Amino acid sequence: MYKESSYNKFFLEKGSIFLFNSFSKACIKIEKKDLERIKKLLKEKNLCKGVENKSQKVLIKNGFIIPKETNELEILEYLYKSNYFSTSKIAVALVPTLRCNFRCPYCFEAKSRKGNNESKDYFEVLKKFSDKNFKNKKKVHIGLFGGEPLLKRKELFSYLEYLLNQSEKYGYKLSTNIVTNGFFLDEETVKKLLKYKCISIQITLDGGKETHNKLRVPHNGEETFDKIVNNFKRAIKYSIKIKSQTKFILRVNLLNQKVEDLKSIFEAFDEKERKKINVIFRPVYSTSQFKQINCNTTYDLKKFYDKSKEYGYGAAKNNYYFQYCESDGGINFFYITPDLKIWKCINEPTKTANIGHLNKNGEMKLDPTNIATWSGKSNPFKDEKCKKCYYLPVCYGGCPLYRIKTGKRRCTTKDMAITPYFYN
Fold this sequence. Notes:
The protein is an alpha/beta fold. It is built from 17 helices and 16 strands. It has helices spanning about 35-45, 50-60, 70-85, 110-115, 120-135, 155-170, 185-195, 210-215, 225-240, 265, 270-275, 300-310, 370-380, 385, 390-395, 400-405, 415; strands at about 1-5, 10-15, 15-20, 25-30, 65, 90-95, 140-145, 175-180, 200-205, 245-255, 275-285, 315, 335, 340-345, 355-360, 365.
């Protein structure tokens, strides 16, 4: 006996009908003539015969139809907690510097740089930390973040070489990723990143060429759009050459941008390069350091995805399974800032987000009160509204930092969470 999943929903997009399951993340495009037939199949409790049987099996395989006894909410909560409290893996986002060669006006880290305190022993302490914490893990993931992480590329690559040797010694699977402004992404740097198991390289462009060159300005004032694009193209070309599976993510920040303003981005890459790039669009948001009216919102992203699809780009999907973002993970994820403090989130550092520090021996000194507060505020299964929400499997209660600061949930939007799945 079967029943329809609680997480099915039909979406009408530009004359096309999509059936999306927010639990399984399966998305099926449906012809209008088949809509009523599919709706009927979703309500069917027994397997049908012939062609209908085949269609129903597809719906079952993709989680649109589930066994009658299945409690999806209980499964979601189990998966969420299993992921949150997992001890077999660890993901650490390194922030070796808050310095940057750019001076973007909206940067949330600008204020932090004024009191920047970089430990001279940062990487030596990290090696000791790694020796104590990685040898019993199955998976170790290292994120490279900043500031601009490639300002410290010599030290970073020395540390990653250390981990590469350590992973071979202890048998854990090492992976890395980097979020960079792309300015220093030369050929030698790309070769090193791919050597150290880099699974994704993300750069950012601030709108079209003209807007970008006004916003993403280095300290010497030169224009940066062309250099960043050419570096990214070179990285993709090398990846294709060595048949790497590295993902290339192009984040486009939107600050009062129209679709036609992005033509310079869409046409900057050739057809082969576009197939390797997944695009993510995000409006620039206000912070305590940056307040400006922005006509772009999280509710109008689809028109940008539509245009990028026309040019042959992919859409970047949420890679965070069973959590809202990386900071929604348990003690198996955290940032380590230049002063060796341990954070759950650094977007707008608050006292609660600081869950401890590393001492000179590489030992984690944790604050159980802040860890418990962060965990408690993150958990959407304590919230009756979240438990009944269709978006629960893609939102998981929204931003933990926002909840801690305001006491409220910030619900996700369709364009943020689901729209990218329409572009498979």
